[in-house]
Description:
Layout: H1 2-18, E1 20-26, E2 31-32, H2 40-47, E3 55-60, E4 66-70, H3 83-93, H4 104-107, H5 124-132, H6 137-148, H7 151-165, H8 187-198, H9 201-207, E5 211-213, E6 219-221, H10 226-229, E7 233-241, E8 245-254, E9 257-264, H11 269-283, E10 286-290, E11 294-300, E12 306-311, E13 315-318, E14 327-333, E15 335-337, E16 345-353, E17 356-365, H12 376-379
Parallel strand pairs: 11-15
Antiparallel strand pairs: 1-14, 2-10, 3-4, 3-9, 5-6, 7-8, 8-9, 10-13, 11-12, 12-17, 14-16, 16-17
Helix pairs in contact: 3-5, 3-6, 5-6, 6-7
Amino acid sequence: MKNTLSLVLIILIIIPVFCYIITENEESSPVILSQRELTQEHHEIVEKLQISAKSCVLMDGKTGEVLYGKNEKALLPMASTTKIMTAIIAIEKLKLDSIAKIRFQDINIEGSNIYIKEEDKLTIKDLLYGLLLESGNDCANVLAYNVAGGKEEFAKLMNEKAGEIGLENTKFQNPSGLHHEEHYTTAKDMAKIMIYAMKNPVFREITACKKMKLSDGKIADNHNKLLDMTDYCTGGKTGFTKKAGRCLVSSGAKNGSEYVVVTLNAPDDWDDHIKLYEYGFSNFHPVILCTDEKIEIDVVGGKEESCTLKNEKNIITRNSKIKNGYKKRVILNRFLYAPLKKGDAVGKIEFYNENGVIDFTNLVIEKDIEKSKRGIFKWLK
Length: 381
């Protein structure tokens, strides 16, 4: 009898190592929010859009994937679109309702200004509105002083943040975007900055605002005309210097899709952005692959004989990624050993096609399962 039990125990310990369930099935009817398919014709249409920008990118605002690019990795000056980075650092570092410290050397600056005076009592949030709506260079300098003690020190923080975000070809020399030979970015990097900034609710609120009255009575008007020209623009920042040309970063959302468009040195930037948004909204649509997945699995040695697994995240992809179909694969042990802790990953679901894995989610324990005092012997009864 003891030998028999020993053999059973050995088998129970060894089997799970080899005993993964791998199920595959063809998903013939995914939940598609819009049925129009991406075709080669649409790529040809993009080439006919006649984008005026020297460099541009259309990026998925959720995944960061480049959907269309034109010289998107070219190193170029970005003028006042720099202030997106200035704003997000200030938001993360300062208290919005605190009164800003103002020095004469920070407000005595060339270019666009809201004409701050040393005696003004402006909050950090006032300065952020002046920065993002009116593109105030004086606002940029005052924010830099309040965050880091000066423009040079603040530029170091900007470059550190660039590294954190994962920017590959960006370098900052000042918080305003005034021209400097070593102050540059790429359309792709600027889109990444905008995606990062748009995750912050304060930034989203300010960049989407068309007009704001500041504490000193000044009215800040947003220079981003796309807010009035379209019903999908959710924010953005303009920029211009003679050497950078017209620069524009914007974000837009419609029918579950979110995009960021960047144009650098674009004579017809408003039209460029509208063309790229229309291309994106017409040709790329979200597709739900996995939501509220539940799987029951046996439990060995637990107070309960089974437990429920659920998907750790919902999976939403884009129609262009699955235009030739896809398959679903579940990878999971045949049973699990107690104790089990809620949230622990014990398997996964993969969606894939001939190009590889499209996306995956872990399968996690839905609730704790305590170990039975009888251990595995309860399971053997």
